[in-house]
Amino acid sequence: MGNRISLCMIVRNEEQNLRRCLASVSGAVDEIIVVDTGSTDGTCRVAEEWGALVYSFPWNGSFSDARNASLERATGDWILFLDADEELVRESQPVLRRLTAAGDVDGYFVKIINYLGNEGWVETCPDLVFRLFRHRPDYRFRGAIHEQIVDVILEKNSQARYRTAEDLVILHYGYLDRQIKEKDKKNRNLAILEREMARDPENRLLRYHYGVELYRAERYGEAAAELLRAARGIDPRTIYLPKLLRYIVLACQAAGNYDRALEVVQAGLNLFPDYADLYYYGGLIHMEQKNYGRAFEHFQQALAMPEQPVSYAPFAGTRGFRSLYQLGRLAELFLNLEEAMGYYVQSLRDNPRFTPALESITRLLQPREDPAYARQCLEQLCDFCTPGANLLMGRILFQQCAFGLALEYLERGTAGQETSPEVMLWKAICLIQQRRYLEALHIIDGFKPGHRLYPLARLNKILCFWFQGNRRRVRSLVDELFSLGLTTDTGAVLALLKDTPGRRRKPGLDLGEEGMSLLLDILMRALDLGEKERAVSLLSGLSRECLHRNARAIGQLFSRYGHPAEAAQYFQMHLAEKGECAATLYALGEIREGQGDFLEAAGLYRRALALEPAEPRHYARLAELYEKMRREILQEALDRYPDVPVLKRLRQETGVER
């Protein structure tokens, strides 16, 4: 029996992908058949450059018809079929010849690794697909979309045998966000599936694929209903059942039907007790429901699972970095920051590209308050040997308002490199926050009228002079920026910058959400520079209603930058305006605790706890505070009665020094 291999493809407007695909099979197949369904770009030219035989096929809405047209023209003994957004892993080339030399096999399920997300953050999801089979004239695809041939081969040859070849690996890029958007895959697939389901409403596989497409289209309630219907009465041996169960859980969770999602998690684990994804998503749902003990158990179970079968199509990290990250979040909820840091570090070590873990580690290191210590820890933990790694760290630090340290990493990441306008503006802002105004202005003046970032650059130029107290330049620059056409809210904030103290308009301004967001950013920048009086001056221009409406956000800024008296004033204002608020009570309690007023702090924490009894940080903070109070009282007693036996025993138990 021969083992000539024909690669069969259908394509349309795949010029950007096709070259990568054909390069991956060069020398591994004996002929390439490309059926084009109406390309308007250079797809056909690229195919011919790689020696493909190119045929035209008018698109009729059926992927099977197009695939079968490619089979009609193939002359090989075996058919390998790929899509243009896929490629064969180079190490798999010799595997093809070994597999097709077998005389007792009619087809193979092979491993495919799907890349999901976007080019900035990509996840992987392995799966099994049927892509290699013997070429016979009666083996033809069936189904307008998600076309199948496995069942057809068995119908035509009841003795046909299949094997799994996980060492033959395909990479698939078609689920990347950019690819889906460019091709409008969601709407295209939904339309085809709806047409097919109208013809065959009892087709379980069609309904499964339809539910998945609804989920991808963010129609979660409909997706859950379709997927549950597809699962009703299904044979537990169905190869796609693990994936179906996971999609039901995801759809129910996204639709807010947590109870049903957890029912499916348990039912799925009864069938597949080693399925890490179900433990992981069950943990996420328990976290959303504030059932933290069960969440902890589920994430620990996910970590304990063995290597997952490819048939589960497991998402990367559910038995590693993802579950470790969620355990870190749980530890933070209970104010166990040391344990949280440990989990985040383990998560990052399991996947050094997992940005959420790095962001959490950086936040816990408090890089704004202690940049030297943060730098030391980060340099020990991460390898910043590439510009990209330095830029990533710079972006994280910039977002966490650690401007001085962010500037160091941004400069390392841009040295000798072509730099995006966004990064240049970040650098300018960092320079302003270091009072390096001339260097910042040099960058800012590089943004010309018409550039999309020009208004933001001009705003930062205004801030350069505002922080220096140059009112004349501020007024002229504000007038210039007004000429560009601004929203009412943005214009009102600029008017506040333009006005001098003591010349506030009456009544004060009542800013909307957009204006308040901008003002809070400017307040943060002023407080970061130690310019509290400038911040207070800006706030004096707001109406009483606006101040009361935004009191908690303003209080949080004053608290973060070490002004507890002003922070407490705004937190109390928020409570007077809005009534009891757990987050505000807790924040005010932290201020009172820091001021040594433990009794008032305890009362505030208890009020917060009464409002949010499921919030673990209230319990943790109260426990810590009561322990602190106990030690303080015991110390006072020991100072007064150093020889009383009961106090000596308590001292030994608590470790309190005389």
TrEMBL record:
<dbReference type="Pfam" id="PF00535">
    <property type="entry name" value="Glycos_transf_2"/>
</dbReference>
<feature type="repeat" description="TPR">
    <location>
        <begin position="276"/>
        <end position="309"/>
    </location>
</feature>
<dbReference type="InterPro" id="IPR019734">
    <property type="entry name" value="TPR_rpt"/>
</dbReference>
<dbReference type="InterPro" id="IPR011990">
    <property type="entry name" value="TPR-like_helical_dom_sf"/>
</dbReference>
<dbReference type="GO" id="GO:0016740">
    <property type="term" value="F:transferase activity"/>
</dbReference>
<dbReference type="InterPro" id="IPR001173">
    <property type="entry name" value="Glyco_trans_2-like"/>
</dbReference>
<feature type="repeat" description="TPR">
    <location>
        <begin position="582"/>
        <end position="615"/>
    </location>
</feature>
<keyword id="KW-0808">Transferase</keyword>
<protein>
    <submittedName>
        <fullName>Glycosyltransferase</fullName>
    </submittedName>
</protein>
<dbReference type="InterPro" id="IPR029044">
    <property type="entry name" value="Nucleotide-diphossugar_trans"/>
</dbReference>
<feature type="domain" description="Glycosyltransferase 2-like">
    <location>
        <begin position="6"/>
        <end position="121"/>
    </location>
</feature>
<keyword id="KW-0802">TPR repeat</keyword>
<dbReference type="Pfam" id="PF13432">
    <property type="entry name" value="TPR_16"/>
</dbReference>
